[in-house]
Each structure stands twice: as C-alpha cells, then as structure tokens.
Amino acid sequence: MKFRRKQRENVDINLASLIDVVFILLLFFVVTTTFTRETQLRVELPESASGTPPQDSEQKLVEITISAEGVYSVNNHLLPKSDLATLTEALQKESGGDTKLPLAISADGKTPHQAVVTAMDAAGKLGFSHLRMTTVEAAPETP
C-alpha cells in the first residue's frame, strides 16, 4: 500500500514586526541613558621621604586640587577660572567662613609653582592656619 505524502507548507517568519520592536527598544535605551561628565582632576602627587600621615578625624576638610596645567578644584568642584579671586570665593563658600578647618593642597608633581603659591595665598588671605600639602610616600631606594 502506497501512502501519498502531504506537501509541506513553507513556513516563513515575518521579521518586519520583530525589527520594528528592536528599533523601538534601541531608541528607548538611547533616549533614557544619562551621560555623566567627570569633574575630577587627575593628579599625580609628588613623592616625599619624610612626612606624617593625616589623622583620621570626623572634622570637615577643605581640599584644593591643582592639575598639572594649573586648573583648580575645591572639594571636587572644578573652578571656571584659575585666578586668585575665583579660588578665594570658592574657598569661602566651601568652608562657610570657618577658617579653623584643615586645608589640604593636593598639587600634581608637574604643577607650576605659581599655581601652588596662588592657592597658599588664597588660604592665607582668608585666614586658614591648618595647612597641609598632600604627597605620596617615596619608594625606598635599593643599593
């Protein structure tokens, strides 16, 4: 007995609607993505063979960071201009007028000397007395 086989139907998957859904999802993810701009300066601190590590304290700290190009940042807030007036105003704002707070200057090893002197001048004009320079510990020399 000979059975006749049925003709197989060609099964086609319509990809047009799938492609539409993928493009809508892609558009959704692109529109809802938030982009953040880094506002921190990259600073390579100079080395020091002698120094004292900072004491861990609960007290607020005001930190001036100076990049190799002389760009200032006070408590990780970039300053629009690198001049004495802008730096003094930012220090006054961050400290809230409290000049007894410790002030740390973290300058890149290749920072121009004038930028560090300007930061020290701004701190001196406002009356900060607890000033510290941030460094990294030098590697011991091997003979």
Structure in words:
The chain has 143 residues and is an alpha/beta fold. It has a domain at 47-137: Nucleotidyltransferase, domain 5. Helices cover 30% and strands 15% of the residues. The chain has 3 helices and 7 strands; from the N terminus they run αββββαβαββ. The strands form 2 sheets. A 5-stranded mixed beta sheet has the order 4-3-2-5-6, covered by helices on one side. A hairpin with a 5-residue loop joins strand 2 (62-66) and strand 3 (72-74). Helix 2 (84-95) crosses helix 3 (113-126). The longest helix has 17 residues, at 16-32. The radius of gyration is 30 Å and the shape is elongated.
Number of helices: 3
Please identify the top-level CATH class of the domain at 47-137: Alpha Beta
List low-pLDDT spans. Answer: none
Q: Which percent bin holds the helix content?
A: 25-40%
Indicate the topology.
Elements (H helix, E strand, L loop, with lengths): L15 H17 L14 E2 L13 E5 L5 E3 L2 E2 L5 H12 L7 E5 L5 H14 L4 E3 L2 E2 L6
